[in-house]
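**User:** Here is a favour to ask of a fellow structure person. Please take any protein you like and set down a full record of it. No explanation is needed for now; the record alone will do.

**Assistant:**
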Amino acid sequence: MTCSAPASRLFLARHGQTAGNVEGVLRGPDSRHDGLTAQGYAQAHALARRIAALNPDSPRIFASTYARAQQTAAPVADLLGVTVTVLDGLQEIDPGAWRGRPYSDLDGRFDELVGPGDRVAFPGGESQQDVADRFEAALKPVLEGGGTPIVVSHGGVLISVLIRLLGDPVVQTWRSGRFTHTNAALTQLRQLEGRWNVETLAEDIQ
C-alpha cells in the first residue's frame, strides 16, 4: 500500500454572497444557517468554472459547517466530479460582543480589537490566533491526504489563517486589508521547501 504525498497546492475560497453580506452586519455563529442569494449562487458557479479551468490535480473539496460555504462548494464539487466534505474548524470568526455591529466598524474602530503582543481579538469572541489554531488543526489531515485541497470558508477566517500560513504580522496585515476576500474570491498557495507561497491572492470571481 502506497501513501499519498502531502498536498503542495492549496486553494482557499470565500463563500458567495448572502443577505447578511448585503446588510453588512457582523453575526458570527448566528449566521450559520444563512443561505446564498441569487447572486451568491451565480458567484459559486463562476468560482467552479474558474477552479475547473485551473485543472487541479486530484481535487478534494472541503467546506465549513455553515450553509453558505457548503452551497458555494457544491457547484465546484459537481463540476469536478467529487463530493464535499464538511469540516468543523473552518467556520467564520466569532465576533463576540461585536455581533450586530456594521462591517464598517472593522475599519473605523479597528483599534478596539488590537491587543498587546501583535494581537487582534474580538471582546467576548475569538482572536486571530484562536481562529488560525482551529483552522490549522482542521487543515493538517487534509494536507496529509494529498491531492489538491479546495477549502471554502469565510472572510475573517481566511484573513486569520493566511496571516498564519504566510507568517505575516497580525495587526499590520489585518489593518492593511491585504487578505480581504470579496464573495467567492479565490487564493492559490503552493508549498515550496516547507513554506507556503502565494500564486494568486484573493482573485475576484464574478
About this structure: The chain has one domain: 9-149+156-181.
